[in-house]
Amino acid sequence: xxxTKANLFWIGILILKTHVQQIHSILQISINxxxxxxxxxxxxxxxxxxxxxxxxxxxxxxxxxxxxxxGIILKDGSANNEISIDQAMFQKNLVVAMKAHETYPETxxxxxxxxxxxxSEDKRFHKVLMPTITSTDCDNARASIQDSVxxxxxxxxxxxxxxxxMLLEKLPExxxxxxxxxxxxxxxxxxxxxxxxxxxxxxxKKLSKKLIEMISITSLDIQREIxxxxxxxxxxxEHATVANTLRDVLLEGNQLTVAVLDALSNLNxxxxxxxxxxGSVIQTLKSVELEDLPVVIKFLLxxxxxxxxxEVRQFIGxxxxxxxxxxxxxxxxxxxSLQYMSRTSEKDCETLTLDAIKSGIHFQRTVAEAFIKxxxxxxxxGEQKVLDLFVLLILYNxxxxxxxESLFRNKIRSxxxxxxxxxxxxxxxxxxxxxxxxxxxxxxxxxLRSPEPVVSYFACSLYKHCFLYFDSFCKQxxxxxxxxxIGSGLDSEMDSSLHILVDLVENNxxxxxxxxxxxxxxxxxxxxxxxxxxxxxxxMLSRLAFYDTDEGGMIQDDLHIIIxxxxxxSNPKYKRMGVIGAIMIVKSMAVSKNDTEELEDDIFRQVIxxxxxxxxxxxxxxxxxxxxxxxxxxxxxxxRLATNIENWISENVTSDFQDDFVVDIEEGKDWLVxxxxxxxxxxxxxxxxxxxxxxxIIHTSDRKKSTLPKQPRSPQPLxxxxxxxxVQICEYKQQDGNLEGIDALIxxxxxxxxxxxxxxxxxxxxxxxxxICTTLFYEINWFIEMVNGFATQTDAEMKGKxxxxxxxxxxxxxxxxxxLAETTNYIPPLANFDLEDKPQNxxxxxxFKESKKSTKKQGKKLKGDKVNLDDSDETSRxxxxxxxxxxxxxxxxxxxxxxxxxxxxxxFRELDIHVFTMLTTSLITKSALDSQQNTKLTEExxxxxxxxxxxxxxxxxxxxxxxLSTTNKRRTFLKTKVDKNIGYSHLxxxxxxxxxxxxxxxxxxLCDHLEKISSYFQKEVEDNDGVIDSINMSxxxxxxxxxxxxxxxxxxxxxxxxxxFLMHCNNDILKQSLQVLISRIKTGDSTRTQSTFQExxxxxxxxxxxxxxxxxxxxxxxxLIKVLxxxxxxxxxxxxxxxxxxxxxxxxxxxWRTVDGEREKGQKHNxxxxxxxxxxxxxxxxxxxAIETLTTKGIPELIDADKNGSSNTxxxxxxxxxxxxxxxxxxxxxxxxxxxxxxxxxxxxxxKMDKLIQWNMAVRIHHVLxxxxxxxxxxxxxxxxxxxGRQFVEVFYRQAMPLLDSMFRFHREDVQSILKTFxxxxxxxxxxxxHTKIIKDISLTNxxxxxxxxxxxxxxxxxxxxxxxxxxxxxxxGNLKNRDLQGCEILSQVSEHSSASDxxxxxxxxxxxxxxxxxxxxxxxxxxxxxx
Length: 1428
Fold this sequence. Notes:
The protein is 60% helix and 3% strand. By secondary structure, the chain is mainly alpha-helical. Among the domains are: 1-55; 418-528, no CATH class; 530-611, no CATH class; 620-835 and 899-943, no CATH class; 1231-1397, no CATH class. The longest helix is centred in the N-terminal third of the chain and has 36 residues, at 20-55. It is elongated. The chain starts with a helix and ends in a 64-residue tail after the last helix.
């Protein structure tokens, strides 16, 4: 059935009828509940009203009457007071009510009395300070909560002062917190909050006086509360009075420091008052409490200005001297992230201080610039603080990255940032530095790419310290970064990165093992690595792989696979890689913990199998075989291999050497080149064997051209020296240093070329010439290995034979030079197998002559160019490589071209470091060579000048390579074919400390030789009637002596400039080396006394200074000066600096001539001369006085001399060297004026006068230098004046003009003299600008706009000075005509009078130069004039 609407209706009716009774019951209950709620609500409302009326304050008084009438319902202290209207209406009604009261004006006093009574009870007093509650009946109030009763009353003018006094006088009554309704409350804080931010104060002066009075009579907590509220209570008119009071409070004690500084920072003070307040704060800095330090720093940095920011930074930096250095430095670097760590209250202070300083650096430019300038001004390493490193790291996160990087480089060059500095920083503050890891890593990457070894070395040290002190995440990032550097392709960057990784693996192997997989990634760059770098890489990987078998198993497998592939390759490059890798694996697998330990059988078989694999794969490749022997000998010599491995190698190697190279002496036969048996030192019984050198060379040459199949193994002359080295090292290791088993080899004769044939070499064929040259190369290398092998033997016979072999080396080298000059397009045989490319023709007679001609042409071309004034040690090393050519036999080769062997260094074997013990060898008789004492001939054997020069030259090169100096040496980013490490592979296996220890043991012998050379020259001087310049230096002996003297000084320079002496751990080594020098001038018991470090420095300085009397060339003089400077830097002493200046002055007063008697000249001489000039000026007690002496005494004498003449006072000053003198003097003048301390308002009168005198002298010197353009107008001189003249003007108006401003009124004549003299100089500068347009030199013209900009800035700066001193009428400006250097008007611009006529079209631009004045006879020029 369908349900319709009608059906639904009737269904509903039926339901209602059924339940009607229940519905009626529900409605009845609802009505009853509604009635009950109404009754209950009325009852509660009546109870509330009754309760409210019971809480009201019912005491009758004028106060109660008026307040209640006007709208405030006072309570009895149990609840907050109520207000029924808006508080502004209440104040208005109260004023009307008081005036309408019948007792007015007594009404005011009665009201106040009632208020006093009302506040007498603590509960009511508390509520009168609490906000009032707006009544529910009020609908026009500003809010449901309004001000407190007392604050509303203080808004009434006639009540304000009395109510304020009433409240403030209650402050002394409170001590500590009060308790209200179970809660503690500091009432003084609530009371003083009533005074904050009042709309109007009737008598602010009286209020401030009352508040200050309360400070002196209240408790410490209330005093702190009052001081904190002061800026929010008093008006600006009273800020100065309050500031003076707070300053006194600050000076009385430091318990209120935080409150006082917080208040002072919120007061509006004048700059003068702020300066005084800051001075007071700085005075209290020494006694500041640790927890107060953040507020102190914040105040100083927030109130700093451009003028005093540097001073404030210096005071802050001095905190490190106040026994809180550690905490203060940690403040700087504590990041906000440390707030969430568990910390003490001190760490909270650190965080607050960090926020204060970082905000000062980030948001105030002057603060950051002040820190940068102050750090840059620190020149001594001892004055550099760890704080400066932290500040630079903070600054590195700003926009000043380039500035910070440059500052880092400067600090590293000067030695202020050293490895010792890093050690102290990381050991104390590693946790803090960890938060700056990103910045440090970025900085490391930049510094590592530097072309200066000192800078990149510092980056290496920074990387190492980060790895040692930071967590595993940082270590992983460091290793990844280093691997990235290796893939850069830049040699210097790759070397430095590999050096870091090698050092970390050697010294922190366990920590590096987890990151071995990252190091393995370097294998991807094998093709870009040199042989030395590949050796380092495989050494690292093998140590990481075999340190822990479980973790390194995968790397072991990969290494074996790669090395086997490389060994099987036909490419010599990859075969070399395989040889090196295999030897490094052997080194790691066969290492033993003690000398008697043997390997397990399984590992022994693996090692032997690998060695045999390498040996077989290299059998047909002489270079690979020689490399294999060299690498194996190095591993045996340096590493501790197991005994059974060493025995196996020794047994196999010795027999092979005898079979390949040692033959019995027999009658010779005819060869392509006539041979002879020479160089035998043994007696007849021991002379039955010889080295089969020349026949082996000829056989090898024939086999190369033969088409017959190669034998599986044939002796190669290329392997002679490497093979003997391996034999010698094995014998040395097994016999504990005794070489008796092979001592016959050192005296063994050699089948070599007849010496008569060499005299006729020019008539021989090309093949014969090449065989002779090859024989001489092998011969020399054989002798070198003889010296390397037997130099450690102590008996006289061996020493004598080693000296004989040294003589053989020098003699053969002279013959080789002659042969090379006659042999064109010759490629020598390799002696060091670290070469990457096929060696090219290095030098021939034809190329030598061509290079000589090109050098002359280049010298003429560069004659007019500027002189390179780079102060580096490269100049002292420049001629090191060419000493042999300077001491050749002139009689035999006078008219022949001679090739220097300096370019063939890579074709000679390396001398070991222990060979230089031969320098200590005394005289040995010829009879000592015969152990059987059968020799009747007695002859003394000792190192002759030629052999001594050979050893010292090699020693200098080794020290320069291995001992990193603190001096500035730059590397090139250009790739070179010859690796710089070739010839130093043995040396590189030693650490710097090991090398320096060896050299210090040689110092007594070096001193002996130095003294002998000096005695030789002194005797020559005596023979020439005491005239040192008249010594005949053209003899071979004199030339050798000069070279030896120079090499000895270079050795001393390399040793004492080693940057390792900056480390405290090397202080004992430094003292030991200084003790050697000082012992040379002490005798008797004086050497036994313990000398202080200062005495050691002074004594060593004195010892070396004594050799200044025997300096015969300028190069030796420069080296001696550098040595003295290095020693003097280790102990700052004005006396030593003055002695250096005196020595430099003496060198300038000598006329330097060549060995041919001609006056020295050329670029090299100029470079040396500029070092001496700069040394004389820098180390003088008064730099400006020294500059003035050169300028006003030396140069005028040169002007008066003839064309070929020189200065009488300084004979080294000639017309050829004038450009060097001029440039250095001008450069040092700029440095001197920059060092004049800037003007400060706090300077004393005497200090200002001293600065004025210095500027007066500087301006006079500048005037003399600029006016020299009228006499010397060369291009170099013009460029110097344009560059340094502009810099002088810029420094003058930045630093001198503020001083002249302050002294203008009281020293007008002195200021007038300075400005007039300076105007004469700028007139010449203006003429120079016009002259550059005449000569049309682009490089000079480009500098003109900068100079004119500086001149224009100076004009407006003078105008500002006159305006400040209220005499602007003394300044007027006109147009200046363009003239040349001689004062003649430029004709092309005669008709042009406007300033816009000068090129550039920039309005006033060039002609309007206010700092130029006309000559006295020039009436047509219009200029700026400053009449005084």
